[in-house]
Request: fold
Amino acid sequence: MDPLLITIHLMLGALGVLAVSAGAPELALVQALRFLGCFVLMALIARVTPKQVVRASPYAYVVVLILLISVLIFGVSPQGSESKRWLLLGGVTIQPSELLKVSVIAYLTAFFHNHLGNWQIWRPMVVIGVAAGLVVVEPDVSTAIFLFALAFAIMLAAGTTLLRLISISTFAALIAFLVAGSYLSQYTYLTERITGFLDMKGPREYTSSTSYQAFRAQEALQRAGLFGIGPGRPVRVPEAETDMAAVSIGQSLGLVGIATLIILFVLLAARGIRIAAAYPGPGSLLAAGATTYICCQAGLNLLVTSGLFPVTGMPLPFVSYGLNSLVSVSIALGFIHSSYRYAVTQGVTP
Reply:
């Protein structure tokens, strides 16, 4: 496996334990154990070749699709939430939309590796459109939009022409709208998040309701200053151990901690792109998709934390508390390591 990626991974994991210990101290040990378990999972995925991932991808996609449909029928919701995003299986809560991200990366890698030269584009249209539509119904619009970004990145890496890119994206969006369009009006959280974001930029009339989380996050980061107030202090921000984990790091370590987070993800992005460019083939597409997934999600989370983007509910990869996200990003990082190993076996060292 790639030594630089392992170093970045371990540093992010350590920051994750720090963030959880500040946001919810009783969960710090659980976070550490989960990270170690997912590190082993990542190492196992790294041993699988890109070609084996391609062969298994259609089956993985179908399984995740069945789980997504099951969520809409048997799914559970947190108290006070409108969303159905989780399945309770044997005491374990599964969030299929997180697994969907890596299954879509693997499936589109298989398709564009095998079919780049012809015009059988209905399959990626259906794969992206149906998956995104089912996620919207949960509702989870931000993840649905993020799936389109992942697909776009893989198509670009595969050298897809502009016409095919527009065709696939447009018709996939139409399919998603046909699947989920009628459900959007039932949910109010979208307008509330936009209202809260605009309120933070304006009169701040809703700091006790719709913009409360963003307001408290901004307060915590301003109070932290350059070096923070030290680890172990409680963070008075909702979801400080999950969606707002970066705030916990910022309060504990200040601007230095946030800058460290950004540098680590920039290094991960640069390394992932370098590995993707090292050797053409399925490994290249896997690495491109996985790098886009991890680093773009990290970028979105940090923009939300800084108040530059409306709340999306997307966790910070390897840092936020939550087993489903940790499993998903660990599999994605395993894809990048797998691509690295394959390039090395071909005599190319990224």
Summary: The first helix runs from residue 3 to 23. The longest strand covers residues 87-89. The CA atoms of residues 149 and 314 lie 14 Å apart. The mean pLDDT is 83.
